[in-house]
């Protein structure tokens, strides 16, 4: 139960959803669709059958029992106007639905902290509005020229039918302005747009009340200099933390692959450990210096730097065929690096 252990270490609780996404059985991007009401239930977006999901829940139940973890029921609400409860199973089985909603926490966790965690996990999600890539027909009024929509069970509705047309769009880009405008607005919604290249919905900004934007702008103007100094301090702290992490990562590479040259280990750690890169070194497992994650980072480096993989791709060879053809080269280099120099 590596996924469960990592989730418990990272956030002080573990849920069935944490385990299933950690195993890759439920793609995180599709979980977002489900949370935002674009999938009828969790089983519909899973990469495995409902029976295998149930088997994983049973394994998790035995694992939490062996660890003495305590249960806490959490609400799962859709990011839609009616905030309906999310469904996990196609059949809506009450026992399975409760199992999915149960989060597990350490028995020695203070009661106040347990209550805070449960309240935060049960907090209703932000409303989500979509900037569609193509025209749509509102199921409420039949309008076809709206530039934003909200998904409901019956289909897409325009902002007028969703009672959100009095809000103004605040583009993403200024974190302080966005945060303050959202705090000041009695009603708000996150605006997302689907990225064809990344195959996921990406945040574009917020819908908030006009008065909230004006108030947030005044607040930002009044403390702009102080925020600039704080950003500079935060940048320095991040750079120092990144340096320490990359050093620890290079040392872990050296322990797993003592024959790997030190300069190469340092180069791999800098590349895979770059903040916001999305590479394996910045994953939860990579930050924990998990041997499997570190090994994957080394393999990725060898694949691109020491084999003909990139040339094969440029030559039109399909990705899986290219990987198969250079697999032996990677294995030979890893075997050599696993031996002390």
Mean pLDDT: 90
**Main sheet?**
4 strands, mixed
* Mass-distribution shape: globular
Structural class: alpha+beta
SSE string, helices as H and strands as E: HHHHEHEHEEEEHEEHHHHHHH
- Number of distinct beta strands: 8
State the strand order across the main sheet: 3-7-8-6
State the helix count: 14
What's the assembly state of these chains? single chain
Distance N terminus to C terminus?
35 Å
Amount of beta strand = 5-15%
Write the layout of secondary structure elements.
Blueprint: H1 2-11, H2 16-22, H3 28-35, H4 50-67, E1 70-73, H5 94-101, E2 102-105, H6 111-122, E3 127-130, E4 149-152, E5 155-158, E6 168-171, H7 175-184, E7 189-195, E8 200-208, H8 210-222, H9 224-256, H10 262-272, H11 284-287, H12 291-305, H13 309-314, H14 319-337
Parallel strand pairs: 3-7
Antiparallel strand pairs: 1-2, 4-5, 6-8, 7-8
Give an account of the 3D structure:
With 341 residues, the protein is of the alpha+beta class. The protein folds into 3 domains: 2-124, no CATH class; 128-222, no CATH class; 246-337, no CATH class. It is built from 14 helices and 8 strands. The strands form 3 sheets. Strands 3-7-8-6 form a 4-stranded mixed β-sheet. It has a two-stranded antiparallel sheet with strand order 1-2. Strand 4 (149-152) and strand 5 (155-158) form a beta hairpin. Helix 1 (2-11) packs across helix 2 (16-22), helix 9 (224-256) crosses helix 10 (262-272) and helix 9 (224-256) packs across helix 12 (291-305). The longest helix is centred in the C-terminal third of the chain and has 33 residues, at 224-256. The chain is globular. 27% of the residues are buried. The model has no long low-confidence stretch (mean pLDDT 90).
